[in-house]
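Researcher: Structure prediction, please.
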Amino acid sequence: MALAHTDASASAPSCAAARPVAGGYPGAALALAELSGGRITFISASPAFAARLGASQDVGGRRLEEVCGHDDLRRIQGLVERCAQGRRPGRIDRALRTGETPDGVRVWAYPMDWGPAGAVQVILSIPPTGRSHHLTTHSETLFDHLGPISSGMLYVYDIQQRRTRYIHPQLAESLGLSPTGAGLAEVQDRLHPSDVLVLQRHLESMAGLGDHEVCETQLRLRGADGEWRIVQSRARVFSRTPDGLVRRVIGVASDVTAAVAQTNALAQAKADVARAELDERRRIGRELHDSTTQHLVAIGLSLAALERRTVFDESHQAILRDIRNSIAAAHREIRTFSFMLHPPQASGGDLAERLRVFADGFGRRASLRISVDVVGQPRDASSAMEGALFRIFQEALMNVHRHTAARSVRVVLNYVGAEVSLMVEDDGGKLASDRIPVVDHETGVGIGSMRGRLIELGGRLDLESGDGGLRLKAQLPLARVAEIKPARRAKRVAGEERSFAPRDREIRPERAPPRLA
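Model: Predicted structure follows.
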């Protein structure tokens, strides 16, 4: 593995004299350390690692400075910090020198990706002198302890041998795999037929991983209880062959079945709420148009009948004109509101066309000139995103109509990069205070509702001062950006492609797996 080699100069001995275990220091000494707030704390360590530090007891839960002297403390802390900040492995030489190891030992650090928020976890390794890094009994014991405290269970997969060299006992038990190591065929026997190509691509990605890359996938596997489980796997390079090919990868497998089911249920609940909201808006729009409008018509007819039967003087005529004007204004407001709540063709066509249709109808009813322009190449967005932008567009126009003296509105739907934005700008004049109100603090329910819609989808809402009035800008990511960039595809897979012949396996309807997120 092409690792960052740092700080190879000699250093004076500083840690307490190590107490060798029987037979010297057998196996690779490993520890899991966490860097948080500038402090390094050991989470777990093998006995060999504790002995290398000269610790007479378990170092789990203790800080680095509690078990290591000043000089080696500085070097190990620098190694961990460089490893965590650069997200790449590194090493120091001639560290932890004792009477038995006067030249010191080499300490490796490997960054891991399952640490809690605000902290980075690093595996520290002190390989035996003259031996390459490989799994030992102590390594497996440490991995057994690491599994329950990470976000999943650890495994080590040998690309060349096409089998796991280590698999956490709990993971093996839950999936019905051999705890001593599972071959590729054994995993494939439990794989859902639709995910065969997914596994093949994942193995190809493993074989082509760079030293600082992580590959990730989700697979459906039949558990030991016969139920389908959705397993998320994240892996990175653990060791390479002398010619530079990936030999082994270390990964974390997590059962995300419940999380996926919860995500699907939440998405369905959101869809149900959105559908109920749309139905309620339509109902209110119909009621306003069919019922309230008829009452206003009846009031107008009654007023006309009263005028025919009664002679009013000039002062009474002024009152009657005010009443007729108020009825006409109420008619216009109801027509505008009912159109906003239940616009025609609101659910058909692409987003730009829906915006133009609504702008045309709303503009005629509200006496507004509304222009809608599209910038960039329109790309597919989820129905939830398009629905949110359309509702925000409606709410923004209604705010312009009700709260400003604007005569025209400019709307721009902009597709740029992996983002879509909607800008609505009016010419209703600048704010008297020349200060933009803060969203949710100085704005009404409408603006807060817009912002809430966007936050749910990972977007944001901004209010700015425009050329002649107020500018509202809603931004949404077209797709959530993955935390880890997928690894490049491998050019060679060491013959593993030949092992993926599809198999005919029937799945009973009651055993059908849940769909992936």
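Model: The longest strand covers residues 228-240.
Researcher: Thanks, that helps.
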